[in-house]
Each structure stands twice: as C-alpha cells, then as structure tokens.
Structure prediction request, 144 residues.
Amino acid sequence: MGFKALTLVEILITVSIIIILSLIGVLGYTNFRPYFYLVGTSREIVADLRLSQQLSVGGQEECGICFLINENSYQVLKYNNHIIIKEKELPGEIFFDRVEGLSENCVFFNSFGAVLESGSIVLTNIKSEKKTIEVKPSGFLKIE
Prediction:
C-alpha cells in the first residue's frame, strides 16, 4: 500500500525546529518591545496634540496638552478654565526625558491652529532610546 508513516526521529526533528523558531521569535519581540512602545506612545501624543488643535479650531477656544512629568502622564484640556478633556498615563516602560521651550510643560493651540509657544517633548524608554516630538510655531507636529 502507498502509506508511509513518520518515524519518531522525524517527528522529534520537526518539533525541535518549531521550538527553535518560536524561541527566536519570542526573543526578537522582547528585544524590540521597548522600541515599539516608544514609537506607539509618541504617535499617541501626536494624535492627542492634533485632537486639541482640532478642538481649538472647531470650538474657537484655546485647547492643549499639559505634560505632568512627575506623574508620567498628560492631560488634554481647555486653556481658559482648565477643564480636563482627556487624561493619559504613559506605559510603564516609557518616560518623559524632558520638555523644552514650553512654559509649565504645556502646549496650547489658538483658534487658528497655531501654538502659543513652540518647543519639544522628548520621550525615552528603559533602553535609553529617545523620540522627540517637535511642535513648530505654525502648529506643525513632527516626530524625530
């Protein structure tokens, strides 16, 4: 009959190859995970900066983000009455390295979408990798 069974050695070799490839994948993921968190967090902050910019233009009142360095979090809020629209805590592996050029560590947009003060926000991860979010005077946002 044409049926051929696998031997025990063939099965063990196949299982060993699968285990080795799985370990390589897991080790690669854990090695790059802090970088992925850093990139993701910087994109989330830029998205929230754009949200506050849109709220400023649409609502014709100044909105922005205040970065709470010691609490490792930030708040999206309205400028005049400091009503908090959204609060976000950074992941445990990501920290604020520094905030430059922004008084009281806040970015606020006027009703035209431009910022009241330009500056930069520098994030770092547990592997000391850094991402810088630049806020230009026109309201343009850039991740470096």
The chain has one domain: 8-143. Helices lie at 8-59. The two ends are 66 Å apart (CA to CA).
